[in-house]
Write a structure and sequence with these properties.
This protein has 13 helices and twelve strands. By secondary structure, it is of the alpha/beta class. The strands form three sheets. The chain has a seven-stranded parallel beta sheet, sandwiched between helices.
Length: 363
């Protein structure tokens, strides 16, 4: 039985991981630590309430004493570190929070783990898994090979620079102190429970409300899209069989231009609304509910500063060593994600009107 501390477990990927782990590893102990900042939503973890193997703790990863106490009292042997500021646009307007959380927060976690696991030897085996991003590698040209684990770091935004810094700290704590670490660098995630500031949920929510679909620049920026469920499964594989000290790139093998992705979401909306009168009645503002084509709501906006042109992931290492393959295609994944937002309107409405923060205040 493993005993996990999951940081940032009330966020998008973290909460999906909690859901995945409680389903797939029913006997394990799982403790979530989350500060419940703007993207941390207690509603994301309501499914776990009452599970005797689950505990939620509201707190900051920068609180080293708190982390040390949790590691001791829960006999934690595995840390899965999701907690991070992650929205590039926000990092451009306010980089300080990204340095504080992503760099200093990660350092605080590593220090707590070093003290308790290596100094006090509270457990016989341990693992610190750090969840990072492909953005640390910079930007690719149209004909460049995908990012591999040996691609030199070249972060171009305050967000990616802060994640690069945290990656280097994790590597250093393994090589200097002997901490048992692994790191995964993933491509763009999408799926249920994603805060509607990111491209996929923003477009879905705007489609349902009949709002414009903003596309940066010419829309030709390319990303590799990874369903969050496949991402969670890849972390499971790394924890089970990944080599200590190694880095694993995780992708969805679904490269496409941003404009192609938005058009696909429009096509899904057109299809779903075309024959469903109940859906048309629920979301009468959607263009497709009135017989129109949703692609007409696409609008191009001023490009993001320093916008990376292309990301692509070479995930042959995790495929060869651990047997990873993405199970969810971009077509089926986007359709399932669209339906999730349709079926969970109260969840995203609470984010739009800010009432989701009431849960955080009470928490």
């Amino acid at each position: 039985m493993a005993r996990l501390l999951v940081t940032g477990g009330a966020g998008f990927i973290g909460s999906n991981f909690v859901h995945y782990w409680l389903q797939e590893h029913v006997d394990d102990r799982l403790v979530v630590l989350d500060a419940l900042t703007y993207a941390g939503n207690p509603a994301n973890l309501e499914f776990a309430a009452g599970n005797p193997h689950y505990r939620f703790v509201r707190g900051d990863i920068g609180d080293c004493e708190l982390v040390e106490r949790l590691l001791r009292e829960e006999s934690i042997d595995t840390v899965v570190h999701f907690a991070a500021e992650s929205h590039v646009d926000r990092s451009i307007t306010g980089p300080a929070a990204f340095i504080q959380t992503n760099v200093l927060g990660t350092h605080s976690l590593l220090e707590a783990a070093r003290k308790v696991w290596l100094g006090e030897r509270t457990v016989t085996r341990h693992r610190f898994h750090h969840v990072s991003t492909d953005e640390v590698y910079g930007s690719l040209g149209p004909e460049d090979p995908p990012f591999s684990e040996s691609t030199p770091y070249a972060p171009n935004s305050p967000y990616s620079a802060s994640k690069a810094g945290s990656d280097h700290l994790v590597r250093a704590y393994h090589h200097t102190y002997g901490l048992s670490t692994t790191t995964s660098n993933c491509s763009n995630n999408y799926g249920p429970l994603q805060f509607p500031e990111k491209l996929v949920p923003l477009c879905i929510v705007n489609l349902l409300r009949g709002k414009p679909l903003p596309v940066y620049g010419d829309g030709l920026n390319v990303r590799d899209w990874l369903h969050v469920r496949d991402h969670c499964r890849s972390i499971d594989l790394v924890l089970a069989g990944g080599r200590v000290g190694e880095v694993y790139n995780v992708g969805g093998r679904s490269e496409c231009q941003n404009i192609e992705l938005v058009r696909e979401l429009c096509a899904i909306a057109d299809d779903l609304f075309g024959t469903d009168s109940a859906l048309q009645a629920r979301f009468p503002q959607c263009i497709a509910a009135n017989g129109g084509l949703c692609a007409s709501s696409i609008g191009y906006v001023t490009d993001r500063a320093g916008h990376d042109r292309r990301y692509a992931i070479d995930c042959r290492k995790i495929e060869a060593e651990l047997g990873y393959r993405p199970d969810i295609s971009i077509t089926s994944g986007l359709r399932a994600t669209f339906k999730w937002y349709v079926d969970n309107e109260p969840w995203w409405r609470a984010i739009l009107d800010g009432t989701y923060r009431d849960l955080a205040v009470r928490g």
